[in-house]
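User: I'm writing a tutorial on reading structure tokens. Could you give me a worked example: one chain, its sequence, then its tokens, then a sentence or two explaining what the tokens reveal?
Assistant: Sure. Here is the example chain.
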Amino acid sequence: MLKPSELYRVLAENQEVRERRNQLRHPNHPVPQVHATKPNELWSWDITKLHGPAKWTYFYLYVVLDVFSRSVVGWLVAHRESAALAQKLLAQTCERQAIPPGQLPVHADRGSSMMSKSVALLMADLGVTTTHSRPHVSNDNPFSEAHFKTLKYRPDFPRVFGCLEDARGYCGDFFRWYNEEHHHAGLGLLTPHDVHHGLADASLAARATVLAAAFAAHPSASPTALRSPRPFRTPSGSTTPRRSPPHRGLRTHLSVSLSHSR
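And here are its predicted structure tokens:
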């Protein structure tokens, strides 16, 4: 009669001490690392729900965001989430922005529309590279998520939308304000429109003139009271978040003023 320890030794020598049931094997997905140093060099896109007039009814907002300038370059609101609608939006946005083949990576999470075959084939036809967030990692697409927070935390954001036209009208007004009037904290308080269209230097020069005049008119004021916001610098935008949960092991790839995602 074998002792239990001897029995387990024999089983171990024959590789029988293991889980006999089928085990799932999760691949090691790399951290997405795509960078932008100018407009239209990296886009991020996502879909969010807008509450409709009745319980469990939603409208779906699709938004394409330029990571470098934070400018919204394409959007639509629809009754459903659909790969065909996403395909149409991305094709029209690439055409409107005159994106040449091979220039642009587009980052997204792993939603059904983002991972669909039709969108993948469209991106291949347009010469656009696609990257995706890692499974079950919510902060691999921080710029789109932060943009949706800016939208939904607006004081006038409706609790519900009465119809599709209401949602489209509100979003149209919001995106005009966001692109042209919103002074983005991650852009040194410049607007996405100015950064996207190369007007950042002119805006900074005008700001410096106003601040100098204000200080000349009030010489007794502390210089820090009239201090300009953190200057805008040529960034290296990335889809990787600035900080990450310790258990995920992510590392920041943002070291300049565009590191703020909201």
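What the tokens reveal: Residues 240-262 have pLDDT under 50 and may be disordered. The chain has one domain: 35-197+232-259.
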